[in-house]
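FORM 7B - TANDEM STRUCTURE REPORT

SECTION 1: FIRST PROTEIN
SEQUENCE AND TOKENS:
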Amino acid sequence: MFTFLTLGIVCPRKNQVWAVKLFQEFAGSRTDVRLLIVGARHTRQYEIEYLKEVKAAAGNDTRIEIHDVTSNVDQYYKIADCLLFTSVNEVTPMVISEAMSFKIPILSTNIAGIPEMITDGQEGFLFAPYDDVAALECMQLLTDPNNGSTLQAKMGEAGLRRFEAMFDLDIMVEAYRQAVLTIAPATILVDMDGVLVDWDQGFMNAWNGRSEIDRSKSYFMEQCVSAEFKRQAELLILSEGYFENLPPMPGALEGIRDMSKRDIVS
């Protein structure tokens, strides 16, 4: 039994009605093929109406199964021989990368970012939306009794390699990180007080015991000395070189240098 899988929310942009028509024209009277449509949802009215269209197109064809949305999509990938993806509105559909991770050949429309995900003739076949002739030819090639199984295995292996090279999460995250850093190098803001510099110790060093310092009084250091010394404290903080000479917090400079070595900051 050769299983075509069409996976995605059943709705007009996913175009499952065309998948049904393609399958029925391809299958004719054959009983060794089937089509699994996974993604029926019964919440939005336009999806409910379109689901009726899909069911009407399928009619009484027992070779076509329509299943509801599920979080357990692996069960369908494991039994699929091919992903039949007939969408007319996409960006870079995750279902294609998921199918490749299961070594499933892809038959898909050539819209949006899909040609960047797979190469026609390598991980699968691409065709224009509603091009029945091209789509049916691709379906025939993949199920050819003489060479079909070899082609399936070849495309499945190519798909897995493509997935591992492009769509593995760690690889994608690093690729996006590098792209962002190339376009706009990162700027990391490091807090000064109590993070990079020891404000309290710096003030006490510069104050040099002129008066008592009660740090519990306020966040502002000039409020932590006696009232008669407040203006002196303000002038000290505003004096030239005061901030430049504040001592670093233990480990702060080492942390910045470590981030620099890791290419986190420059």
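SECTION 2: SECOND PROTEIN
SEQUENCE AND TOKENS:
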Amino acid sequence: MPSPAAYLRKSKDATTKAEHLDRLLATVRRHGHNGDTVIYDDWARSGDQRKLASRKAWRELCGAIERGEHDVVFMNDLDRGGRSLEEWLRFIRIAQEHRVRVIAGETDYSAPENKDRLIFEAWLAERELDAAKRRAAATIRMRQGRGDVLGQPPYGYRLAKQDGRVVLLEDPDHPLHPILDAMRDAQGNTAEVVRLLNDRAIPSRYGKSWSPPALRRVLRRLGAAPRARARRTRSGRLSMPSALSKLVRCHCGTTMTATDSRNELYCYMGTRLGLARHGRYVMRQTPVLEFAKAEAAHLDIPYDKVTLGVETSQRREALEQQRERLGWAVTDGLLSRDAAKARAEEIDHELKNLEEAEQLVDIPAVDWTAEPASLNSVLHALWEAIDLDAEMRPVRALWRVPEWRRP
């Protein structure tokens, strides 16, 4: 017999998961369901369409609906199900085909009479996500111009504010010298270093036991460990780092695995679902590299760096205020219409220059003969992902570089 399902998702909020879950289960109980609800948990996962592959519970929910395991799905709000109009329309189509109700915020979005509301609210959710991305990008550019340290600090350090900038300082709660002492005592043997750290009760970053991968991550960020090298797989093949690692996205939305030893890309979801359900899931890397070369062939690479900071945003705000006051100046007889129009054109021109200056990024030159790990970091600076179609052909590159710098 079909059971109700409850989907829980929020991207960045570690403290209120229990409150969101209680609210979700209260909605389920109000609709007369008790104890038999299946909860699908994608907490701390983004609702972005581009990150759909990381939402494992969402994929499991879609599969369960197709298998007829649920007759109703509950969510706290529509944007908790995701911030993509395209994905919402696909999900509602699946739900309607299997006669499953989708209730979010007390509204049944699978009902035909609510289709217009679904499209409008899903579009609003996607627009808000795009706006948040733009705000985040502007903040990062401002902090880079100010000289802030970005990202999570390495083990042994913490972030602190000094002279108006965010800098790295040593963290007394996680000192480095016990790790260096253990490395010296173990003569660099990773397994022995891990054993010594656990025996000596040296705290890891998150309070868990030390493991070889955790130790390698710490050492790599400190510049004390080598990057990935060739290694033997279970089958005995030699696996090499690839220039396309974590860059190519399958037509199902999953990031493909790159294996340089066989010059291949494959989708792990395809290996799970099989050719009949998924379609093609293996291809050669060469067509993607040729596509990438063609995309990057005519990049306008800026060599002059522009310093960005608080002054840029202050200047933009002042210009916008000047433009607003032009109308009052004409009304009060302080400026003629022609003079106001000329000044407005000057302001628009300067605002455009400020906007372009903020979009300047340090685009690295692409050396296609570089080692795969180095080339991979350059390609990631140019693109978020390269998308494939159902025939496993590269069709789109999602650029990090502003449009006016592209070919």
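SECTION 3: OBSERVATIONS ON SECOND PROTEIN
Confidence is low (pLDDT under 50) at residues 234-239, 302-310.
The longest strand covers residues 3-8.

SECTION 4: SIGNATURE
Preparer initials: ____
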